[in-house]
Amino acid sequence: MRKICAIHQPNFLPRLSTLAKILSADVWVILDDVQFCRRDYQHRAKLAPMESPEAWRWLTLPVHLPQGQRTEIRRVELADPCESARRVSCVLARELGGGPMWPALRPCLAEVVTRLRESKLLREVAELSTRKLLEIAGWQGEIVRSSDFDVTPERSARLADLTRAVQADTYLCGTGGRRYLDESAFTRIGVAVEYFDTPSWLTPEVWTSGKGLSAVCALARREPHEARTLSTGCSRMGTGWVRGWGAGE
């Protein structure tokens, strides 16, 4: 039976496209020991009003980099946790509070806001925000951190080594990785490469309008019973598991 690995940095309230990639895998390796990239999804999310997906705005967490530009994601500090928590809570309620799914989303997002208020590290908040959305989606895969493994530093070889380290036989490459991935690094150690594309288990309407927005936007716009129709079950060859994308599943 195949075991598929997705590797991605911890993102704050991740995009639908990022969440969908993880949902399509059996294990998520949190890439937390690479250099932090300012003004990227690692510390900000795209949110939009439910009635106007095109009118999106950034929700950003101010951060401090103890080692300057070379600071790894796992060492990035939150610059003003209390003020960020207040702002995030207000913005989420304003943008998503009128949605049918808000009663189901609110307790999960409240946990993220609490962690934001109490934590000093961006990684903890970003990771939790993704974990909570995966829980809502019903994903029961494995989550590990890249910093727990000793692997080759070269980019493609590192990804191949991490895939093998979690005993997966297939690496699921995102759209960004297509530009640089060296498949020979995977071939050498017997790991297959698959490229993530438009997921067949998401409706075209949901994917087209929301793949660049935070996944909370796609969830908030659905009725609780319609949340399950965001996918056709997220079933994949080789894994055998089927999970609907609905609150509480």
Count of DSSP H/I helices = 8
Number of DSSP strands? 9
The shape is globular
Uncertain parts: 228-249
Distance between the termini: 24 Å
Given the helix and strand composition, which structural class is it? alpha/beta
Radius of gyration over all CA atoms, rounded: 18 Å
Work out the helicity level: 25-40%
Structure commentary:
This protein has 249 residues and is an alpha/beta fold. The protein has one domain. It has helices at 16-23, 81-96, 102-118, 122-137, 155-165, 184-187, 204-210, 215-220; strands spanning 4-8, 27-30, 44-47, 57-60, 63-64, 77-78, 142-145, 170-173, 192-195. The protein is globular, with a radius of gyration of 18 Å. 40% of the residues are buried. The model is unreliable at 228-249 (pLDDT under 50).
Keywords summarizing the entry:
single chain; 249 residues; alpha/beta; 5-stranded parallel sheet; two-stranded antiparallel sheet; 8 helices; 13% strand
Compose a concise summary of this entry.
The chain has 249 residues and is of the alpha/beta class. The protein contains 8 helices and 9 strands.
What is the element layout, followed by pairings?
Elements: E1 4-8, H1 16-23, E2 27-30, E3 44-47, E4 57-60, E5 63-64, E6 77-78, H2 81-96, H3 102-118, H4 122-137, E7 142-145, H5 155-165, E8 170-173, H6 184-187, E9 192-195, H7 204-210, H8 215-220
Parallel strand pairs: 1-2, 1-8, 2-7, 8-9
Antiparallel strand pairs: 3-4, 5-6
